[in-house]
Amino acid sequence: MATRDNNTDPHLVDNEQQILEYVQKYPRSTNTQLFSILALLKAYLPDSYLLMDECQKILGPPDPIHGGPPFTERMEPFTNLISADTEHICLSNLEKAKKYVEVLADSGISRSAIVDTYLSSLCGDEARPELIEFLKDLLTKREEGETRRDNFSRLITEITERETFQKAVSVLETASHKFKQRPIFPQTIARLYYIEISPSDYEKAAKWAKIAIERAPNNSYVADTLGHVYKNKFRKKAFNLNDVLTMADLAFWAFKEVEKKAEKEEGPEMRDLAGIVNISNSFNNRGLFGTCQVAKMVYEKLRKIGTSTTDHFPNLKMEIEDKFEFFEWYLSYSQPDKKTVEPNYFWGDVAGCYECYTEKRAADSTSFPGLLDCLNHGLFTSKGRRARFVETEKNKPELERIRDDLKRIFDQNVDDVKVAERYILSNIILSNKMPNSPEPTDVKELQEIIHRFVDTEVRFRSPEFYLLTLLLFWPEGNLQVVQQKGDEELKQEATEDNGLQEKTCDDEDIDEEQHTGGESAQLSPNLLFAPDLQDYVTLMEKAFEKYAKYLQGRYLLPLFFLGKGSGLSKWIHKSRLDAIVEATVDAELLNEQNQKGKKIDDLWLSGEVWHVPEIQDILLPVQVEPCDSAVTPQEQEEQEVFLCAGGKKIRVRTEDKPGGSEQSAVRFYLGFNIRGPVVFKVGAPDTNGDRQ
Questions:
Q1: Domain total for the chain?
Q2: Pairing with 534, which of 289, 322, 336, 400 sits 20 to 30 Å away (CA)?
Q3: For residue range 474-526, what is the model confidence (pLDDT) as tens digits?
Q4: Which residues contact 386 (CB under 8 A, 6 or more apart)?
Q5: Is 380 within the bounds of a domain?
Q6: Cis peptide bond prior to 685, omega within 30° of 0
Q7: pTM attached to this predicted model
Q8: Is residue 490 part of a domain?
Q9: What confidence tens digit (pLDDT) does each residue in 422-432 have?
Q10: Distance of CA 153 to the CA centre of its chain
């Protein structure tokens, strides 16, 4: 976007004093009004703009096409601040725009007044859709901070701080009345009344939250605001028994409504189907979470009064156990995206509520996700440590006791597949704690246990069941000998071969015939079962549908990686990689521990983690081939490749798309998330030290 040359005309020099005098003398002139709108848009939405006809609408007649003066002349003395692009009119400099918003405010043209002008001048019935979106972003878009999202848009925050609370409410009310179908404006007003004003006005907050719900009756995220209004009122206002019971009931009811609406929402892929009432890119967990928060406060308030929850909420304990079970697997299997985890308080509130009602520590859980999580205890990145729980690393005797307890329970319930799954997993977890020791339990014994359930009730098996089946029956051996090379050799190969490895699955089939595998490659004489890995990958994918709705749009965390060991020890729990990364970062940072979390994240996001020598020492590279798919990579959400294992080709997803970067992948590692196997692409180390 071109800008004017300040040297071409001395009359066009950016003169702050001249502009200040002009806006003070002509605050209501049409060019001052247009300039103020352009300054506000640039300062708060740098990519926004107006079209020329929209500018002319504010300036009014005479239009240049009817003999009026040109736009540049009419915009004096502001012309030099405006881009010369005649298609998209905006101020050319962000910092100057911010400065002039302050200049205008000091001259009596406040931010709220500019918004009012924008609303009255540009937001008529035939307004360009982008203008409405600009307004919505100005008033409601909350920016992401380092640890959490801002409570309000930057503009609303600054109107509240530099003008008055009522001015912020006023511009939102005007927008709400003008756009009667949009719930976001009354929803934001409700949040202002219970968050921003002191003391909070919960009655007005509830009124506006209900108006928002009327406009979007099926939207769980809109309904969530009323739950937060009632929850905060309960926290701050309920002290006697009657208030506790009355206000808690309202909060529980509101969050239950959020739950119901969230359950009925569907993902974007269902948008065109008849009967779908609301679409959401992700499952809204706030109804479930809000109930946990309210329940924890109920417990604490009733205890202070001298009574118990069982006297007044007899079914609450069971409900909290169900919600804890949900969040236990939800947070063990996923996080919002690769870069983001739930706020630190999230698990603290869930686990704290669970402990209040059950008198059990969340850290002692031996459910399937609880066992998966126990090796994370004590790590910097563990959700327990982030929640500020006192959490120690699980030692070998503790894990052996857990394994022995589960073995005893299984021996008493040999037909219970869930107990069998937990017992098998406890052995895999224990093998990760003592990777160089003899197997805690014979692999064949575990194979025989899971084989008893393989052909029964196939449709009702869980993804956890198929995960264990694949781990136990995965073929032994060096699946990709040619890839076990150092970074220097890989760097050289990357310059010679821009595609995937030349070695094929057919070549590997020959390798397998020559290889004498480890223990689990040999089946017991009484166990004539050699599962088709592709079939079980497909079954796991189908079983994942029980979680798909709830994990929609979230990043599925890798649970295990294929390592260089044999038997159970060939499966590397992700916590072992996290421990190596944490030690690496500690060694680098020394006295700069406040940067530890960011540095750990950077290692994972950049891919540099795959080049840490200690991680390369324990992971086994695998061989992949491109899939012959009729669907182009651009049309696929995740690209698939053929993984070569045991002389067979297995179609699996990739964490990153091979060939998607300028430098081809030269090494691939295999991991498993709760959906199935996933291949992680590793680029050769960059000569400048950057990693892929």
A1: 1
A2: 336
A3: 998 654 433 444 455 545 544 444 444 445 565 544 444 443 333 444 444 44
A4: 341, 344, 347
A5: no
A6: no
A7: 0.87
A8: yes
A9: 999 999 999 99
A10: 21
